[in-house]
User: What shape does this take?
Amino acid sequence: MNPPIPTVHLFPILDELLLSLLRSFSASDWERPTPAPRWKVKDVAAHLLDGNLRTLSMLRDGHFGESPENVQSYEDLVGFLNRLNADWVAAMKRLSPALLIELLDWSGRQYSDYLQSLDPFAKAVFPVAWAGEAQSENWFHIAREYTEKWHHQQQIRFATGQEQVLYRRELYFPYLDTSMRALPHHYHNVPAETGTVIQFSVSGEGGGHWFLQRSEDAWHLVQVAHATPVCTVEIEGEIAWRIFTKGISREEAGRRCTIAGRRELGERVLEMLAVMA
Assistant: This one.
C-alpha cells in the first residue's frame, strides 16, 4: 500500500507564486501561446479561476449547476468537461487581466481554506478517474487538484520562460508522485509474467524513482522492488509533466527518454495521462 501524498499545505505557496508571476506580466505576455492547445496565457489563468470557483460552488456550497447528461463512458465525461472549460474561457475574455488577478487572489484563499477543512481520509465527492478509481479518499482528490494547479501554472511559466521555480523538490516531487499513481491503471491491460518489475526514474532535484510490479492479475506501484527490473525508463525532469498532460508529442518525448531492457514495456509510459483528457 502506497502512503497518502500530503499536498494541502502547498496550495498557498503555489498561489502566491502564480500571483507574483501574473502581476509582473506585460500586455503581450498575456497573449503568449501555451502548451495547452488553443489557449493563451490569459486563458490558462482563467481556467485556474474556474477551478477555484467550481470547487467552492460544488463541494463547499453544494451547488452543482450544470450536470452531465447521457454520460455513459469516460470519453463522454471528458467531452462534457472540455465543453465546460471552453465555455468558461470564452466568457472570461471579457475580463481584464487586473480583475482576473484580483479574483484569483480572493478565490484562492477561500479554496485553500476549504481544502484544509476536509477530512483527508473521508470519501471524496469525485474519484480520481485517471488513476482508475471509482472511489477516492479526500487526500487523493486534493493531490489531484494540486497536480491541476501545478501543471497549469507551469504551462503559463513555460510560455514565458520562467519554469525553474516549480521544479524545486518541495513542489515538483508531489506533482510527480501523484501523477505516477496513474501507472497501474495505465498498464492494466499490458501482459507480463508475475513478478515483472519496471522502474521509472525522473531526473533533477524534484525527481525520483517509482517501481511498477506485476502480480498474478494486476500491476501495482510498489515502494521497494524485490526483483531486478526488466526495463528501466529514465525521463528528463523538464518533460515528465509534459508527457502526463499531453504537452509534448510521443516522438519528442521518446527522444528525450532513455529506455533500457524490454523497450515495449517502457514505451507505454509515453502515452500515460494524469489529467482528464
Summary: The two ends are 27 Å apart (CA to CA).
